Amino acid sequence: MLKFVILLSVIACALGAAVPEGLLPQLDGRIVGGSATTISSFPWQISLQRSGSHSCGGSIYSSNIIVTAAHCLQSVSASVLQVRAGSTYWNSGGVVSKVAAFKNHEGYNANTMVNDIAVIRLSSSLSLSSTIKTIGLATTAPANGASAVVSGWGTLSSGSSSIPTTLQYVNVNIVSQSACASSTYGYGSSIKSTMICAYTVGKDACQGDSGGPLVSGGNLVGVVSWGYGCAYTNYPGVYADVAVLRTWVVNTAKTV
Ligand code: ARG
Questions:
Q1: Is the dihedral of CA 169, 140, 177, 111 positive or negative?
Q2: Which residue in the list 71, 160, 176, 190 is annotated as catalytic?
Q3: Spatial separation of the C-alpha atoms in residues 248 and 194, rounded to whole Å
Q4: Half-sphere CA count of 120, side-chain side, radius 13 A
Q5: Which of 100, 127, 133, 197 has its CA 20 to 30 A from that of 83?
Q6: pLDDT value at position 157?
Q7: Contacts (Cβ under 8 Å, ≥6 apart) of 23
Q8: Whether residue 210 has its Cβ less than 6 Å from ligand 1
């Protein structure tokens, strides 16, 4: 039975995920408190697709560079990847660009989920517009409790096998790395220095949102990485901390 539960969890996160050692994924959850939106409100959001199917989110850093999660780019070759930008819908509209190359953070660890960040170089540059815009990288992590917003085409419930076609967003509050690792929440030492969290009761990112943007103060502050279920009480969403990983992104964007 345990094996079955783990297998199901792996399938549930087949959109691309893992949880750190020692935390069993939980199957029941919801992306919660989210609302449908349009790309004009989140013009830095892209859908990263494998063989034409949405697999992860991402953010536009420059006209030809996308920031996403390293766990979204394991065991895949650039030739099967594409990015859809400028559309409210993951499966139509906007523009689709092929992926020329990508690079995962050298320190990414699938067991602990540290350094869960990657950059993608597009084959052709995006034309920036009202629906396709870059977003700046945070230089410092927002304060504990700051408001933030996460968006994506991830599942509306953790056990769900289908994703919405319309972009969703949800407002959440930043939980600092130290607060997230404290006994206030359930993660303890699984929260590492390259991670930042966000939490609001009943609201969270979920499977398929990975790689996508957590924005606060107009900057990219987090990349959707992992969580114990989705919107589970005392288990915030966990994000790659962009302020901590900023130098890696800036440098890797030049060489990918
Ligand atoms: N790992 C998931 C994915 O690949 C994202 C999980 C985010 N979970 C959360 N509770 N915030 O899409």
A1: positive
A2: 71
A3: 12
A4: 35
A5: 197
A6: 74
A7: 187, 190, 228
A8: yes
Structure-token match 């994703």, residue found: 163
Tokens found for residue 76: 């895949």
Tokens representing 194 are 């390259």
Domain with CATH 2.40.10.10 in the chain: 29-37+136-244, 44-134+246-253
Note the pLDDT of residue 159. 73
pTM: 0.90
Separation of 20 CA from ligand 1 center, angstroms?
A: 12
Tokens encoding 33: 């408190």
Mean pLDDT for the chain overall: 89
For the chain, what percent of residues have pLDDT higher than 70?
Answer: 88
Q: Residue 32's pLDDT is what?
A: 66
Say whether pLDDT at 27 is over 80: no
Res. 16: pLDDT tops 90: no
Domain 29-37+136-244 falls under CATH 3.40.50.10860: no
List 55's β-bridge partners, or say none.
none
**Rounded mean pLDDT of 49-69?**
98
pLDDT band of residue 162 (cuts 50, 70, 90) is confident
For the domain 44-134+246-253, what is the CATH code?
A: 2.40.10.10
Mutate to test the pocket of ligand 1, among 54, 161, 200, 207 (most ligand atoms within 8 A of CB): 207
